[in-house]
Design a protein that fits this description.
Layout lengths: L1 E8 L7 E8 L8 E10 L2 H5 L9 E2 L3 E9 L11 E4 L12 E5 L3 E3 L6 H5 L2 H14 L12 E5 L4 H12 L3 E6 L2 H10 L3 E4 L4 H7 L5 E6 L3 H11 E9 L19 E4 L4 H4 L7 H14 L7 E5 L4 H12 L6 E5 L3
Parallel strand pairs: 9-10, 9-12, 10-11, 12-13, 13-14, 15-16
Antiparallel strand pairs: 1-2, 1-4, 3-5, 3-7, 3-16, 5-6, 6-8
Helix pairs in contact: 3-4, 3-9
């Protein structure tokens, strides 16, 4: 048997969900799966979005995780028992808020040796989202073939924005991002942003004052609806736009985007695992590259807060912090109660 923390709907209107420990059968690894003993987990917006409500059944959430491999399926050839690993999980399967988790080995990699479990757990989902949106969807060359071009990152102090700033700088881009509070501005500066503008003031005029009446890339990691019209105005001809947040309704993609031949790219980190795409192992490769970048000091973890132990109370606290829209970087939980 093993313990897991499951979320279920609650009749409490002030806090319409609750979490508690539950005993579940110990999973067994087969096929491409590995069984991981969980040491730390981290919070992401997806945790709050897939939380059960209404008449939904209770479910084990959690996607970012760091732990150790304790069992491997017969098709696993990339990882071994004892390996210290990290991964972003699979939204279609039970999550990492459990002492043990079955996960497809092809989306799991050995974690950075220089990081603690909590520091490593803070990275996978956001690193994959940032890497895929920048390097794969928008076609930015990590080796610097677009060096000197500009990128406007909306939501730079968030989990994805924090790592995207670092990856964009590695590619040689000039990074402009948004903030309003001093602490989030300081954080973006620590991540390497070249320019930080106040999203509560006129963004277009601030960009122009900095010498960027148009930018080559826009990565909106915060609110598609709120910044859609602005994006069309500031994107350069033949520019690229990356989106990760579902809009509330249809998006108008005519002029000025048509006149500018702008490219629009959706990024959903779970696509490869959800559809078991033929390149599913690419996520293992990306996480391995991220681990190397961390261990060589080229990028850093975006962990900003640790809660301990991993308990129902601390998980609910982490959910509330995530939903407050005031969190900076990532929040992780470590050690079991």
């Amino acid at each position: 048997m093993m313990r897991a923390i499951q979320f279920s709907p609650s009749p409490n209107t002030e806090l319409p969900y609750c979490a508690d420990f539950i005993e579940l059968p110990r999973p067994q690894a087969s096929g491409y799966d590995i069984l991981v003993s969980i040491e730390a987990v981290a919070m992401n917006p997806v945790d709050t979005k897939v939380r059960p409500s209404g008449t939904d059944e209770a479910k084990t959430l959690g996607y970012d995780a760091a732990g150790a491999v304790i069992e491997t399926g017969e098709l696993v050839d990339s990882l071994s028992v004892g390996d210290k690993v990290y991964y972003a999980g699979d939204v279609t399967r039970p999550g990492s808020n459990a002492e043990l988790q079955l996960i497809d080995s092809r989306i799991v990699a050995k974690r950075p040796e220089s990081l603690s479990a909590a520091e490593a757990a803070a990275l996978p989902l956001t690193a994959l989202t940032a890497w895929e949106s920048l390097y794969e969807r928008m076609g930015i060359d990590p080796d610097g073939n677009q060096a000197g071009k500009s990128i406007f990152i909306i939501g730079g102090a968030g989990g994805v924005g924090s790592i995207a700033i670092q990856l964009a700088k590695l590619a040689g881009l000039t990074v402009i991002t948004t903030s309003s509070r001093q602490e989030s501005s300081d954080w973006c500066q620590e991540m390497g942003a070249d320019h930080i503008i106040n999203h509560r003031e006129d963004i277009q005029s601030q960009l122009s004052e900095l010498g960027f009446p148009a930018v080559n890339y826009v990565a909106n990691y915060f609110d598609t609806d709120a910044y859609w019209e602005l994006t069309g105005e500031i994107i350069a001809p033949q520019g690229h736009i990356a989106l990760i947040v579902e809009p509330s309704g249809p998006l108008y993609i005519g002029d000025p985007l048509k006149r500018k031949s702008a490219s629009i790219h959706w990024e959903f980190m779970f696509t490869r695992s959800m559809f078991t795409t033929e390149d599913i192992q690419k996520q293992q490769q990306i996480l391995s590259k991220v681990a190397k970048l961390v261990d060589t000091g080229k990028i850093r973890t975006t962990l900003n807060q640790v809660l301990s132990p991993i308990s129902p109370e601390n998980l609910m606290k982490a959910h509330q912090l995530q939903e407050s829209s005031s969190s900076i970087g990532k929040t992780a939980l470590q050690d079991w109660q």
